[in-house]
Design goal:
The chain is α/β, with parallel strands linked by helices. The protein has a single domain, classed as Alpha-Beta Barrel (TIM Barrel), CATH 3.20.20. It is about 55% helix and about 10% strand. α7 links the parallel β4 and β5. It is globular and about 60 Å long.
Length: about 325
């Protein structure tokens, strides 16, 4: 019988959520995603030290350039393994800087193109703030496709779709974490609030024909993953990829675009004032967005210190 992972691949595009090339190669995903936390973890491993050294050498002593080269260096190595796209993240400190995010995205794409990689194989990751979404809207018009990350609410999702964003990454597990901490109870299966959030977003997109892809992310257990079978994409860490690979549990399709199109879902006309109000009214989304930006910024600072040490040596 086909493994649970192979069954899932027939319903959903599987993306590897890691910066470890060896692990990516094991599971044959279509795409791969990275973030500052994953890059920091990988960059400190001996087998990837040469990428840090190379970025430092080619930077000419410029720390910002070294960081860009390091991020793209990891992306280039990943693209040698996967057939699809890799996501490369704009630094979190630009999350509220529309122009800064646009400029950085163009610089990253330029480095990929200089290395001979078509921009269709790159997704630029930007936080789902109002400013980040506006940056993505501009970039998409230049065929620089974006992955809007740290997404926790319907308001963020609708704003992304109306901006013509290529892909969004709702953070399933972090939504679960908040609810467990707030309500002091456990959730399983379809009652998981992170799972419910992705179902709501997916159904809305398919109901109104948005082309923005939905990629569930940040899982806490394999049950969450199976409850999203049929989602456009799912980005899964090595732990759960391994678990699904060695399981033969049957997979049932949970999300179906044809069924979504028949649902009675009210249309929302999203604009900045409504976006900010809806986000403010959603304590979970507000807290997790801010927390996620802080975490990614802290890990990016760690990567910067690593690169700075290499430059100074």
């Amino acid at each position: 019988m086909a493994s649970t992972l192979d069954q899932l691949k027939k319903l959903t595009t599987i993306v590897a959520d890691t910066g470890d090339f060896e692990l990516i190669a094991q599971y044959h995903p279509q795409d791969a995603t990275t973030n500052p936390s994953l890059i920091m973890k990988a960059a400190t491993q001996p087998q990837y030290a040469h990428l840090v050294d190379q970025a430092a050498r080619d930077s000419g002593g410029n720390l910002e350039k070294a960081l860009d080269l390091l991020l793209v260096g990891f992306g280039l190595e990943i693209l040698k393994i996967i057939p699809g796209r890799v996501s490369t993240e704009v630094p979190a400190h630009l999350s509220f800087d529309t122009e800064g995010s646009i400029e950085k995205a163009r610089e990253l794409i330029g480095l990929y193109e200089k290395a001979g990689i078509d921009r269709e194989r790159i997704l630029i990751k930007i936080a789902s703030t109002w400013e980040g979404i506006r940056a993505a809207e501009v970039l998409e018009k230049e065929s620089i496709h974006c992955n809007l990350t740290l997404l926790f609410s319907q308001a963020q999702a609708i704003a992304c779709a109306e901006a013509g964003v290529k892909l969004i990454s709702p953070f399933v597990g972090r939504i679960l974490d908040w609810n467990v901490a707030r309500h002091g109870r456990t959730y399983e299966g379809a009652e998981d609030p992170g799972v419910q959030s992705v179902h709501e977003i997916y159904n809305y997109y398919k109901k109104y024909g948005y082309q923005t892809e939905v990629m569930g992310a940040s899982f806490r257990n394999s049950g969450e993953i199976l409850e999203l079978a049929g989602c456009d994409l799912l980005t899964i860490g090595p732990k759960f990829l391994e678990e699904l690979k060695h399981s033969d549990a049957p997979v049932e399709q949970k999300l179906d675009a044809a069924k979504s199109a028949q649902m009675d879902i009210p249309k929302v006309d999203m604009h900045e004032k409504l976006f900010r109000w809806e986000l403010n009214e959603d304590a979970m989304a507000t807290e997790k967005l801010a927390d996620g930006i802080r975490i990614f910024a802290a890990d990016f600072t760690k990567v910067a210190k690593l690169a700075e040490e290499k430059i100074s040596n």
